[in-house]
Each structure stands twice: as structure tokens, then as C-alpha cells.
Specification:
Length: about 325
């Protein structure tokens, strides 16, 4: 079946996710109002998938934009697939619902379509969202991720979220959930960094084998936030192979980068606050890459990440080998 801007993938719980979404993350120095304006433009030009998170600090603006577009008749609430994420200071089971309710209050929405565990790392619970000790090192907490997942399942059964999933998980962390006793709901998706230079082929194969959708962020290369991204890394959209193929099709490098992911069966998040680019990115359905072009683009993989979470390696080790 040909891909269109109306295309959706059926998740393993029966709900459907639009194959292209608008990402709303921006560095702290960016005005939060930009996210709201971008959401309004996106909904007006045809996007029906909006991705945000508690930690982004922009859900008030994003929620207001969604509600304005509902009020003026552009969309109905059921048309909009909205994603939010559980932050890492709320992994303790009794705090999971607290984080969700904060998002719902900011959004002024009755439910969230997809709720994800943002990262498989837990920080010390409290008001400080990035708690550190006197030496500046992160202060971790060690809730079993499976207990957090049980609380996520409770949110689904309470009707506060339609679907639940994870973000930034590898296959070992996914297996902890998939193999847990008494599992009620599998993760419907795993949202990870995935792009021309990091094609996540093994993780994609694993997810497909368990009917879990892979959802890609950083498809256009990342926001290059200095807190997360090594500024010496190459700019993905300047890649010569990507640009050669884009020129051949009369398309932008961003459109080709997105199209490559879509043809691999991956849900794509594309972030832009510029109206012309928001519209342009949705035109990714107007062309198709050949098998040879896909082979060439897949060959550009460097296993290179833009988003560096290596600073949290000790906690990741704990998650790989929890107390059983």
C-alpha cells in the first residue's frame, strides 16, 4: 500500500499511529511559544501526530495549540495522536501517575494517546529533575524498570492513556519487560535515535519480531543542543550522498532522510519550528526511493549517535543486570 500523509500503522494494542509526527523538543533558550506555533501550523497543513514530553517544559503551549485547532474546527480530538513521556524522577510506581497528571493538567486534555518511559534510567525522586551530588555527578535511584512498567499498565487500564511504550531502550531492556511475569501489555513502540548515520538495523529487526513499532527521532540529525551533542560531529543534512539523491528527485535532503526511514517501516518524527519546513517535510509522500537508492542510503550507516547518554553508563549497567 502506498504511503500517504493519512497512513497509520496499527500498534499491537489495536490503536493506530500516524507514520509522520512533529517533534517539539528545543533547547531551553528557545521560547516555549515556538512549539505552540509550530503545532498549530502542523495541524493546519495535515499533521495528526504531535510528540512532546514532560521534560520539554512546553506542554502548556502545545496543549493550548491543540485545543485552539480543535476549537476552530481544524481537527477533532480523536484525530490528533499525542505522545508524552514519563520523566526519570518519576519511575517509582506511586509517582508514575503523578507525572502523567502533571502533563494532563498542563495540556488540559483528558487523555494521552501514547505515553512512553522517556529513558531507561532513574534519577532520585524529587523536585530537581536532574539531581546531582556535590561533585556534579547524577544521583540515581534504582526502581526495577518492571515495577515502573506495571504502573504504566495501570494508567492504560484507567483510561488515562490509550497506549504505552518506551523510548531509548535497547533489546536487553525491552526483554526485561517482555519476559516479566504477569505482563498485561507489551510496549507498542520504542522511540529511539535513528537516522542515516545510525540505522538501528538490529534493533529494528528485534522490534519487528515482537510486533513493536520503531519510532525514530533525530532523523534530520538532531537540534545540536550543546548539552547533548558533540559540536564536532558532521551535519547530517550536508551529507553528499543524501544531497545527490535529493537533487535527483528534486527534493530536499530532509525529505530523503525521512523517506528512507518510512520505507524501512519506521515511524518518523521531524522537528522544525519554521512553517515552510513543517509543510515541506510533510511532502515526503510525493516521491519514492528505488531499491538501489535505499541500498546506498542504508550503506551510509556509521553507528554514530548525536545524542550522548554515555554519562549514565553505570545506571544502564544496573538495568542490564537487575536483581532478579
Amino acid at each position: 500500500m502506498a504511503l500517504t500523509k493519512h497512513s497509520r500503522i496499527t500498534l499491537n494494542d489495536g490503536h493506530k499511529i500516524p507514520v509522520v509526527g512533529l517533534g517539539t523538543y528545543a533547547p531551553q533558550e528557545c521560547p516555549k511559544s515556538l512549539a505552540g506555533e509550530a503545532v498549530k501550523v502542523a495541524l493546519e497543513v495535515g499533521y495528526r501526530h504531535i510528540d512532546s514530553a514532560f521534560i520539554y517544559g512546553n506542554e502548556v503551549e502545545v496543549g493550548q495549540a491543540i485545543r485552539e485547532k480543535i476549537a476552530d474546527g481544524t481537527v477533532k480530538r480523536e484525530d490528533v495522536f499525542y505522545t508524552s513521556k514519563l520523566w526519570s524522577t518519576y519511575h517509582t510506581p506511586q509517582l508514575v501517575r503523578t507525572c502523567l497528571e502533571k502533563s494532563l493538567k498542563d495540556l488540559q486534555l483528558d487523555y494521552i494517546d501514547l505515553y512512553l518511559i522517556h529513558i531507561p534510567i532513574e534519577f532520585k525522586p524529587g523536585d530537581d529533575l536532574f539531581p546531582t551530588d556535590e561533585s556534579g555527578k547524577p544521583i540515581y535511584h534504582n526502581t526495577d524498570i518492571r515495577d515502573t512498567w506495571k504502573a504504566m499498565e495501570d494508567l492504560k487500564e484507567a483510561g488515562l492513556v490509550k497506549s504505552i511504550g518506551v523510548s531509548n531502550f535497547n533489546h536487553k531492556q525491552l526483554e526485561l519487560i517482555l519476559n516479566m511475569p504477569g505482563l498485561r501489555y507489551k510496549p507498542v513502540c520504542n522511540q529511539v535515535e535513528c537516522h542515516l548515520y545510525l540505522n538501528q538495523s538490529k534493533l529494528l529487526e528485534f522490534c519487528k519480531s515482537h510486533d513493536i513499532v520503531l519510532e525514530a527521532y533525530g532523523v534530520l540529525g538532531s537540534t545540536r543542543d550543546v548539552k547533548w551533542v558533540d559540536q564536532s560531529l558532521p551535519i547530517l543534512l550536508d551529507d553528499p550522498v543524501l544531497n545527490t539523491i535529493a537533487k535527483k528527485h528534486g527534493r530536499t535532503p530532509a525529505q530523503v532522510a525521512m523517506r528512507q526511514m518510512l520505507q524501512r517501516g519506521i515511524v518518523v518524527l521531524a522537528k522544525s519550528f519554521k512553517p515552510e519546513r513543517i509543510k515541506q517535510n510533510l511532502e515526503v509522500f510525493k516521491f519514492e526511493l528505488s531499491e538501489e537508492e535505499m541500498k546506498i542510503l542504508n550503506g551510509q550507516n556509521l553507528d554514530q549517535r548525536f545524542v550522548d547518554i554515555s554519562r549514565y553508563a553505570k545506571q544502564l549497567f544496573r538495568i542490564f543486570f537487575p536483581k532478579l
